[in-house]
Amino acid sequence: MKAVHFGAGNIGRGFIGALLSKSGYDVTFVDVNAEVIQALQEKGQYTVLMAEENGVAEVISGIHALNSVSELDAVIAAVAQADVITTAVGPNILRFVAEPIAKGLEKKGDKQSLVIACENAIGATDTLRAYIEEHVHATQLARVLETTSFPNSAVDRIVPNQRHEEPLTVAVEPFFEWVIDASMIHTQMPKLDDVLFVPDLTPFIERKLFTVNTGHATVAYLGYQKGYETIYEAMQDQEIVATVRVALQETGYVLTTVYGFDKEQQNAYINKVLNRFSNFYVSDELIRVGRSPLRKLSRYERFIKPASMLLALGQQPEALLEGIKAAFQFDVASDTESVELQEKCKASPLIDVIAEVTGLSKEDRLVGMILAKLED
Ligand SMILES: NC(=O)c1ccc[n+]([C@@H]2O[C@H](COP(=O)([O-])OP(=O)(O)OC[C@H]3O[C@@H](n4cnc5c(N)ncnc54)[C@H](O)[C@@H]3O)[C@@H](O)[C@H]2O)c1
Ligand SMILES: O=P(O)(O)OC[C@@H](O)[C@@H](O)[C@H](O)[C@H](O)CO
To answer: Which HAMAP family does this UniProt record tie to the protein (predicted)?
Structure first.
């Protein structure tokens, strides 16, 4: 069995590539980062460390790697031979990896394969599939779609930015969850150990995005305002913990009401998530967790979608608004989206910026509430 994984970064090496390898796949990483690719090519293996007391180290071996810029033909050939093609590059990068995937799928003949985007976004594989379809020749499209499944998925494991003496080593939290929408697989089911296949992904991805990621982003933005550097540090601040807890009660209300998740189980899930954020052995910079505020403040993302749903259910978002306010004020010179957001806020009336960034109309109640909060 062969797998090609685009994105040899934190989650690529620390979770998806490792799980594919442990499930018996011959894994080829594809990345634009020449240093990482060269190191993987030279060593053919790397270490995954569990970020916990006396955490074990696992060696992931037999790894191949290709540079997606200088070895494009080989990337396309690898995709053509792969049973499973995955990505963890960031939602904004999917458009760039679509072409080599499309060219590989064109070349594969009648081989069955799966393409799965492992990104923090609702319908990420749908997005990738749409880009891929733009690059597949019209005469090949029907065959490619017949022989390829494109299931959406949700991935959960905190893997911070980090530096080790051995640069390929990656420390990860022990917890992990990879959920795949089985109803979107019409080809042969893949062999993926420790993956949960579900008949409908929507509740799972929304529960993950609106609990883990809403909570994480709330801690990051509030923590950044208070001058902390890491999630762990911010989680020692009881004011922040209290706000994030209320924010997760707000999203929890949406999740239990709309998807029927059991209230007790949702509370246990929230507690577990907050414990994960408090892991002393994970040093996760607020700047990583808050990265790309324009994406995080967009219509179907971790703040605006649950806040809109809460309003539609007749409840008022309070703590979510605190997080949204802090996100609008996230001012980090190294983050291009943060810089763009701050420039927008200086150049245009706030109500226009809020409507543009959130994708809501200026008349929307939530826009008015965000404006009032920002002017508070
Ligand atoms: N780190 C986490 O805790 C975590 C957990 C769950 C999901 N995710 C999701 O996984 C995705 C990746 O996040 P990450 O934290 O691993 O980021 P990362 O920056 O560590 O890794 C992304 C990798 O993609 C590579 N890349 C960029 N452009 C590319 C291209 N055109 N072709 C091939 N590779 C390219 C980068 O060089 C980098 O190595 C994001 O969607 C993120 O939301 C991250
Ligand atoms: O990757 P992002 O930018 O969507 O969100 C930042 C973090 O919240 C995220 O990477 C988490 O660590 C991860 O989603 C945990 O599963």
So the answer is: Mannitol_dehydrog
Contact 353, 375 (CB under 8 A): no
- Residues 43 and 160 occupy one common structural domain: yes
Instruction: Tell whether ligand 2 has an atom less than 6 A from the beta carbon of residue 76.
Output: no
How many domains are contained in the chain? Answer: 2
Q: Which two tokens stand for residue 171?
A: 């420390």
Cα–Cα distances (Å) from 299 to 148, 154, 358, 360, in that order, read 30, 19, 5, 7
Nearest CA to ligand 2 atom 16: 156
For position 291, what pLDDT does the model report? 98
Task: Enumerate the β-bridge partners of residue 6.
Answer: 30, 87
Query: Domain range for residue 170?
Result: 2-200
State the CATH number of the domain containing residue 260.
Answer: 1.10.1040.10
CATH code of the domain containing 191: 3.40.50.720
DSSP-derived pairing of the beta strands 45-50 and 170-172: parallel
Residues 184 and 254 in one domain: no
Residues 195, 213, single domain; the answer is no
Parallel, antiparallel, or unpaired for β 196-198 and 177-181? parallel
Residues making up the annotated binding site for NAD(+) are: 3-14
Query: Rounded to two decimals, what is the model's pTM?
Result: 0.97
**Do 114 and 232 belong to one domain?**
no
Helix, strand, coil percent content, the chain, rounded in steps of 5: 55, 15, 35
Nearest atom of ligand 1 to the alpha carbon of 159: 3
Could you tell me if 296 and 308 lie in one domain?
yes
Residue at a domain's end among 154, 173, 200: 200
Reported as a single tens digit per residue, the pLDDT across 223-268 is 999 999 999 999 999 999 999 999 999 999 999 999 999 999 999 9
CA distance 94 to 56: 33
Ligand 1 site: residues with CB under 6 angstroms?
A: 6-12, 30-33, 68, 88-91, 93, 96-97, 119-120, 155, 157-159
Check whether residue 305 and residue 348 sit in a common domain.
Answer: yes
Output the six-digit token pair for 156.
């959960």
